Amino acid sequence: MAFVNTLLRTIRCSAVHTLVQEGRSLSLLKASHQLTQSRKIMLSNHVRKEEAKSEPNETLDLEEWKSILKSDIGNAEMVKTETQEDSSLNEMRELVEMWRLAGRAVPQSITTEQLQVLMELPTKTARKKYLKYLSVREVMKTNRKEKKKELKESKSKIESLDQLETKEDTPEKKNTFLLHVWDKSIDTMQRWKCVQAMKFGQPLVFDMVYEKNMSRYELENTVCQLMESEGWNRRSTDPFHIYFCSLQPYSMYHKELVKRYIGAWDNVFVTATDKSHVEMFPKEQLVYLTADSPNELKHFDHTKIYIIGSLVDRCQQTGLSLANAKRLNLATARLPLDRYLKWDVGAKNLTLDQMIRILLCLKDTGDWKKALSFVPNRKHDGFAEPAASKKRNIKNDGGMEYAASTKRNLQKNSKMYKFGASKSFIKPERTDDTSIRSTRKRWWEEEN
Q: How many structural domains compose the chain?
């Protein structure tokens, strides 16, 4: 033991001399001194009781270790997928730039969402068509902006000329006892009516279960129509309480609505829920409005809850909403278009904003002619006249006569012949004059 201690002293002294010769700092010397003091050499196999008590019992938690490893693996996979997506997006952006240099119809600026849609398209022709659609839309947008600028400039010029004219002439003071109604006050009034409708109004359900049956373009068109119908409902005198049923969070419907409303989605007076209409309301009150229903809607019922399918079907998927209603054992109805309109050839499908305008007018007035005036004129040839009823007038003698309207129809259809009117049927009149007879020569008489 004494030999080991002397050996350590010599090593320590030699280390100090070398550090001083090399010009090291004092902090390093202090650290080495502390390390050499704390070091202990145990030549015996025994462990002291104090040290055994001071050392804590270390237990390895396997589950925690596994969770840490799995999280590391998941993070690595997420990083890999993100890098792959970024690389694919960069490749697609380079392809678009190459097509632009080649002179194809490509938009000048393209977003990441549009690039993702472009990546999802399966064929090259579909990608070309989508890029052409984006470029046409971009050109239309720029043209619209230019027209707005020109209109603003022309309006400013006209206003400046008017101001010069009014300065020359002595203008009369515009004095009135009527208060000016500002747009902000109108908006607050309309919103207040929507709040009242959400509390006491009649519900109107938009069914949002048709996401898988539509393409992306059709879904965008559906969301535009939903926004228009919400606007018409807000501006009406007695609005509905609109429900967006089966609207799943972070679905395509939800993403498009949030994108179109530009941060105002949470302030829209609409009840959006992921529950179906069957879970929200009793089945006895629900009526599904579909063009394929065999039942005709004769009058508007204020106690019923009408359902409209949020669907834009360009490819005419007939019977889709009817099958959905039958699957849930719901009552169905269709608008009486054949009874009131002279319908042309084509499907009797209306847009969502047209449907809500018809229902709002029916709710306020109950007049079908006034309500169906919102159907576009290109789809029909006007309103149908009621069929002439075959009324019969009973005379005193017990004989029966048709009404004057039926007589006119019979007279038009019947052919009236006036005998003797044509020249071919006129015969010469027989005369008893003998002079005429004498002048006539008989065949047996010879000429003198």
A: 2
